[in-house]
Amino acid sequence: MAMARILGTICLGLVLAVAATFARLFLKARDRHRAAEDANQAQTERLHAEIAAHQETEAALAKAKETAEAANAAKTRYLVAVSHEIRSPLNAIYGYAQLLERGDSIPPQEAGGVIRRSAEHLTNLVEGLLDISRVESGVLQVRQELVRLPALLDQVVEMFRVQAAAKGLSLDYVVEGRLPAYVRTDEKRLRQILINLLSNAIKYTDTGGATLTVRYRSQSAAIEVRDTGPGIPPEDLERIFEPFERGREPDTVLQPGIGLGLAITRVLARILGGEVTVASELGKGSRFLLRLLLPEPIEAPAGAAAYRRVTGYQGPRRTILVIDDSPAQITVVNHLLRPLGFSVFEASGGTAGLALAEHCSPDLVLLDIQMPGTSGWDIAEQLRARFGAGLRIVMVSANAHEFHAGRDGRRAHDAFLTKPVDLDALLDMIARQLGLDWIVEAAEAKPASLRPPLPLPLPDAAVPYLVELRRFTKIGHVRGIETTLVTLERNVPESADLVARLRPQLEAFDLRGLARTLDDVR
User: Fold this and answer.
1) Topology of the domain comprising 310-440
2) Residues 261 and 200: beta-carbon distance below 8 Å
3) Helical H runs in 170-308?
4) What strand order describes the sheet that includes 415-418?
5) CA 49 to chain centre
6) Alpha-carbon Rg of the chain, whole angstroms?
């Protein structure tokens, strides 16, 4: 009996031990299974994450490819447009230069006007490209200088009168109230804004014309350019201010240009502390409004020539030294300054310029920056160390990105001019630096703007010539008008009075007035 209990106890212990072993094995197996499931889940999640990452990468690559293709297409359109814009004025300059070399009987005023306008167009194009680059890199610099506002506005308007007349358009200039003689701003930037706005108004208008209206009050100006062009769709009112964009209308897209004008205009206006807004109605025209702070100085500066022809200056003879490696630049300065009574010395390099300065003791030096050998900045420091603050040093360079206003206590020069140099701006700079009072020509009396109709009708023989004159006037063909006038006067002696009236208008490029005179002919 006792043995049986003992055996039962042993068997129960064995059963319990076996059960415990199986339980432990089961728990271990379950733990391993759970660990395997967790590992599989983690691996699955990693695979899903990798797949999602690959999909995002593929989407980003596709988007980058589309962006690159769009940028490449835009670059192609841009290069084609730039090439066209550069070749057009270059062709005019090249053609007129060849005519002058051949000794053709082309009026010097016509050749000079075409070459100057073409050069201004090229300059504005290059400056526009540089300005976009400077804005993107954040290095665009703004000057604060005294600007003759009425003269600037007159110049810009006159610049576009011939272009408007050639298209049969009117160009009106209205001043509401008083304009200050001088304001403080960046003249180059303000001129660029006005040119861009007026250029677009003339370019995109086929009938009617454009009007520039200026209002000035409380140290600020409101300059409005209104045209009678096709108008701008509402969806393009902001788009036209983007670089290389000119709207979606077919007539707009086909116009010459590279689509930088309005983009630069808005950026420059904001940099100058102003704003450009646009309102437009399809089929009726557009209205661009520039609001800008233009503070008026307390008193006008001395030495201002008011854009009248300078014939000399008062006081003792002054000496100017030109240091520039460009013979053309030296020639221009010589032709400008010698007739005014200046003693002009010239050097093509920095070392020669320093030696010449010791000999001639100049009152002012016009100094280029990039020359063979020593930099213009180093030459300026040596000149300042040798001659002191009494010598005026004006840097004249095509490297506008190197602009430094000067006279700030840290630099050796006194002022800076950017090539190509406006000759009026150069004279103003010389007057300010040397304290000169210019001697200017007396203003000529303007001819009456209204003329009575011609008293006698012309014979029938003059009719073909009048038709040709009207056609040439409509397209702005100045040479054609001049040749036709000569032929008309020779073949129809009764036309002498008419030709005498038309010639001064032609010489002044007043094609609109010329057209009105032709309309008076009976």
Assistant:
1) Rossmann fold (3.40.50)
2) yes
3) 187-203, 250-253, 261-271
4) 343-347, 319-323, 364-367, 392-397, 415-418
5) 52
6) 38
As a CATH number, domain 145-293 is 3.30.565.10
Confidence grade of residue 345 (pLDDT, cut at 50, 70, 90): very high
- Give ranges for CATH 3.40.50.2300 in the chain: 310-440
pTM of full prediction above 0.90: no
Q: Where, residue-wise, is CATH 3.30.565.10 in the chain?
A: 145-293
Q: Please tell me the distance from the alpha carbon of residue 440 to that of residue 443, in angstroms, as a whole number.
A: 9
3-class SS string, 207-233: CCEEEEEEEEECCEEEEEEEECCCCCC
Take residue 435 and report the two structure tokens written for it: 């304290």
Kindly report, residue by residue over 16-74, the tens digit of the pLDDT. Answer: 777 777 777 777 877 787 887 878 888 888 888 888 888 888 888 888 777 777 656 65
Locate tokens 């000169």: which residue?
436
Q: Is the pLDDT of residue 305 over 50?
A: no
Output the CA torsion sign for 466, 467, 469, 470.
positive
Question: CB of 350 within 8 A of CB of 378?
Answer: yes
Phi, psi angles (nearest 5°) of residue 258: -120, 5
SS (H, E, C) 19-84: HHHHHHHHHHHHHHHHHHHHHHHHHHHHHHHHHHHHHHHHHHHHHHHHHHHHHHHHHHHHHHHHHH
CA gap 301, 70 in Å, rounded? 52
- List Cβ neighbours of 385 (8 Å cut-off, separation of 6 or more): none
408-463 pLDDT, tens digit each: 555 788 888 877 677 777 888 898 889 888 887 654 444 433 344 444 567 778 88
CA distance 33 to 119: 85
CB proximity list for 393: less than 8 A, separation 6 or greater: 364, 365, 367, 380, 383, 384, 406, 412, 413, 414, 415
Q: How many CA atoms lie within 13 A of 501 on its CB side?
A: 20
Place of tokens 């962006």: 67
Strand extents, DSSP E, 95-160: 145-147
CA distance 447 to 42: 94
Q: Are 263 and 276 in contact (CB under 8 A)?
A: no
> Which residue(s) pair with 213 in the sheet?
174, 224
Contacts with 203 (C-beta within 8 Å, 6 or more apart), sequence order: 255, 256, 257
Question: Residue 348's closest CA among 377, 363, 370?
Answer: 370
Task: Give which of 238, 246, 159 is closest to 200, Cα–Cα.
Answer: 246
Kindly state the tokens that stand for 156.
């810009």
Record the tokens describing residue 402, joined without a space: 């190197």
